[in-house]
């Protein structure tokens, strides 16, 4: 079966922010969810977590949902993600999603995590993961929230149920001229492991 026939073309959003963001109601994942819900027929899912243990449950629910696109929103740096109560290294994240990102795409909204270390960790445990898109620097909340809304909107305008490599590349290029977040796009390459596309 082709991936389009065995997975559901929807976005599964998992978010975790710090205490300051919680108090200021800065949740770009939640904003994305609310925007996606405005599209007729769309059924995104949104979950807020604070710990690694809760992320393990999200990985289980993600597989159970059979959703095609995982959107992970949190803080981060070039070595790890920052959940509300736990630091989470890239290898730890990859272990939690071991085999669960095959035939799927990963989109990450977290500062500076768009590096080969993340891509290598994920692809090592998910060699059939189609791709990863993540920022290479630290966008502000407003930039990130607007960027991801525009990205998913433009992708859906092109094709309602699939995301193709050429479409992702073209949309990222188009948005790079409008929004500050610099996104890196990785695909799996058997020779070099993580292949940086953009």
Properties at a glance:
24% strand; 198 residues; 7-stranded mixed beta sheet; 40% helix; 8 helices; disordered N terminus; 3-stranded antiparallel beta sheet; alpha/beta; Rossmann fold
What features would you describe in this structure?
There is one protein chain. The protein has helices at residues 3-6, 19-24, 28-36, 52-65, 90-96, 116-125, 141-158, 165-176, and strands at 8-15, 45-48, 67-73, 75-76, 80-82, 87-89, 105-109, 131-135, 183-189, 193-196. With 198 residues, the protein is of the alpha/beta class. The protein has one domain (3-196): 3-Layer(aba) Sandwich (Rossmann fold), CATH 3.40.50. Strand 5 and strand 6 (87-89) form a beta hairpin. The relative contact order is 0.15.
Pairing-aware structural class of the strands and helices? alpha/beta
Radius of gyration: 15 Å
Per the principal axes of the C-alpha atoms, what is the gross shape? Answer: globular
User: Ranges with pLDDT <50 over ≥5 residues?
Assistant: 1-5
As a percent range, the share of strand residues is: 15-25%
CATH architecture: 3-Layer(aba) Sandwich
What is the CATH level 1 assignment?
Answer: Alpha Beta
Topology summary:
Elements: H1 3-6, E1 8-15, H2 19-24, H3 28-36, E2 45-48, H4 52-65, E3 67-73, E4 75-76, E5 80-82, E6 87-89, H5 90-96, E7 105-109, H6 116-125, E8 131-135, H7 141-158, H8 165-176, E9 183-189, E10 193-196
Parallel strand pairs: 1-2, 1-3, 3-7, 7-8
Antiparallel strand pairs: 4-5, 5-6, 8-9, 9-10
Helix pairs in contact: 3-7, 5-6, 7-8
